[in-house]
Amino acid sequence: MRPRSAVLAACALWLTGCTVGPKYTRPAVPAAPAFSEQPPQSFTESAGWKQAQPADTTLRSDWWQLFGNAELNDLEQQVDVSNQSLKAAEARFREARTLIQINRSGLYPTISTTPSITANRTSQRPAAGQFILPIDINYELDAWGRVRRSVTAAKEETQASAGDLETIRLSLHAELAIDYFELRSLDAQKRLLDATLVAYQKALDLTQNRFNGGLSSRAEVAQARTQFETTRAQDIGVSVARATFEHAIAILCGRTPESLTLPASPLNTAPPIVPVGVPSQVLERRPDIAAAERRAAEANEQIGIARAAFFPELLLTATGGWQGTNPVNWFSWPSRLWAVGPSVAQTIFDAGRRRAVAESAAASYDESVANYRQAALEAFQQVEDNLSTLRVLEQQAQAQRVALEAAQQALDLALNRYKGGLVTYLEVVTAQNIALQNQSTEVDLLRRRMEASVLLIKALGGGWDTSKLPAT
User: Fold this and answer.
1) Distance between CA 43 and CA 59 in Å, rounded?
2) 6-13, long-range: CB within 8 Å, 24+ apart, which pairs?
3) 3 state SS of 343
4) DSSP 3-state assignment of 145?
5) In DSSP terms, which residues pair with 317 in a beta bridge?
6) For residue 353, how many other CB atoms are within 10 A of its CB?
7) Distance separating alpha carbons of residues 168 and 439, to the nearest angstrom
8) Alpha carbon distances (Å) from 376 to 274, 380, 440, 442
9) Where are the strands (E) in 39-161, listed by range?
C-alpha cells in the first residue's frame, strides 16, 4: 500500500505542476533613443524651484512643487485627501484586490456540513429519530493550471487597477494645476484691464477738456468714451470666467464652491524646469501604459484558462461524520460514517464552445497588446507635442515682447501728437487697441506656457513609476 500511495501522491504533485497555455512575454514597443524635440533653452535655464532640485533628473511624486507656488501646493494636497472621484477609483482598486483571494481559494479544498435531525413515525410503530452530522470535503486538482492562472490573472488585474488609480490621480492633479493657472491668468488680465481703464479715463478726461476748449470734436469725445466703456465691460466679464475656475478648483479639492475663496494673485512666474529623460523611461513612468501592459499579461492568462477547458477535471471528494438514532449514541464509534474517492469530469461534445472561447481569448490578447502599444505611441506623441509647444511658445513670447514695446511706443507717440493737435483721436484709439491687444496676448502666452508645462509633466507620468505597482 505504501508504494501505491507514494505513486499516487507523486502523480498528484506532477499534475498540479502542469500548466497549459503560452508563457507571457512583455510585448515589444518601438521607441526612439531620444525625443526629437528638446526643451527650449530658456526653459531649461528657468529659475523655478532651484533650492528644491539642484540637479534632479527625474520628477518627484509631488511634481507640482516645481512651480514654486505655496498656494498651489496646498490645494494639490487636498486632492489626495478629499477628491471624491479619487476615492471612487481607490474603492475600485480595493475591489479588484479582493478578486485575488476569491480565485486563490480554488487552490484549497472546500469543507462543508449539513447536519440534520429528523423524527418520523409510521403506523403501528413508535416514533424514531435520525441524527446526522456529515462533513463533506471537495477538492479539484489544478492539473492544468486553470486555478493558478486565474489567481495570476487576478493579480495582474489588481496591478492594472492600481495603474488606473494613479492615472486618475495624475489627471486630477494636472487638471487642478491647469485650472489654477487659468484663474491666475485671469487675475493678470484683470490687473491689465484695471490699469488700462485708468489710462483710458485719463485719455477721456483729456479729450473732454479739449472739447470744452474747442480743440476737439464731440465725435472724438464719443470715441474716447466708447473705448473706455468697452474696456470696462471686458473688465467686468473677466469675473465670470474667474468664478467658474474657482468653483472647479473647489470641487477638485472635495469642497463646496462657496467654501473656497482665492484672493487675486496675477500670474507672473516663468515655466519651471521639467526633467524629460528618454522615451524608454516614459514606458516605466506612465501609469496608463503600465495598466495596459498588465492587462495584456492578464489576457495571456485567459488563453491558458480557456485551453485548460479541453482537459478533464480531476476531483477528490470525501465525506465523513456521524449518524445515530438518538443523542446518546450519536457520537459513538459505531455511528461513524465515511466515503472517499476520486472522479473525473470531461466534456465530450459542446458544439465548438470551448474552441470558440479559446479563439476569443487569443483575439482578446491581440487586442490588449495593440492597446498597450497604442498607449505607448500616444504617450510619445504627447511628450513631443508639449515639448514642441513650449519651444514655439517661447519664441512667440520673445517676439511678442518686441511687438508690445513697439505698440507702447506707438501709443505714446499718438497721444503726444494728439495733444499737439497733429492728429485726430482716431489714431489714439487705434494705438490703444493695438497696445491692449499685445499686452493681453503676452499674458495669454504665459498662461499657455504654464499649461504646456503641466501637460508635459502629465505626459511624462508625473513622479510615478512601475516600481510603485502593488506587490500582490
Assistant:
1) 16
2) 12/141
3) strand
4) coil
5) 138, 341
6) 11
7) 36
8) 20, 6, 37, 35
9) 110-113, 116-120, 128-141
Dihedral over alpha carbons 159, 160, 161, 165 (to 10 degrees): 100
- Helix %, strand %, coil % of the chain (to 5): 65, 10, 25
Candidates 460, 454, 457; CA nearest to 282 is: 460
Distances (CA, A) of 231 to 194, 240, 450: 9, 15, 26
Upper half-sphere CA count for residue 405 (Cβ side, 13 Å)? 5
Count the alpha carbons within 13 Å of 257 in the hemisphere toward its beta carbon: 7
Q: What distance in Å separates the CA atoms of residue 185 and residue 447, rounded to the nearest whole number?
A: 6
Sign of the CA dihedral running 210, 213, 215, 217: positive
Q: Which set of grid coordinates corresponds to residue 40?
A: 527650449
Cell numbers describing residue 366: 491581440
State the DSSP code for 51.
T
C-alpha separations of 22 from 61, 143, 147, 195, 305 in Å: 36, 16, 15, 70, 10
> Domains of the chain: which residue ranges?
27-118+125-191+268-468
| Residue given cell 519651471 in the structure block | 272
* Tens digits of pLDDT across the chain (472 residues): 444 444 444 454 444 557 888 999 999 998 778 888 766 554 444 333 333 333 345 678 899 999 999 999 999 999 999 999 999 999 999 999 999 999 999 889 999 988 888 776 666 666 566 778 888 899 888 888 899 999 999 999 999 999 999 999 999 999 999 999 999 999 999 999 999 999 999 999 999 998 898 888 899 999 999 999 999 999 999 999 999 999 999 999 999 999 999 999 999 988 988 888 888 888 999 999 999 999 999 999 999 999 999 999 888 898 888 887 776 676 777 778 888 888 888 889 989 999 999 999 999 999 999 999 999 999 999 999 999 999 999 999 999 999 999 999 999 999 999 888 888 889 999 999 999 999 999 999 999 999 999 999 999 999 899 999 998 6
Q: Quick one: 27-118+125-191+268-468 is in which CATH superfamily?
A: Outer membrane efflux proteins (OEP) (1.20.1600.10)
Calpha distance 467→281 (Å, rounded): 12
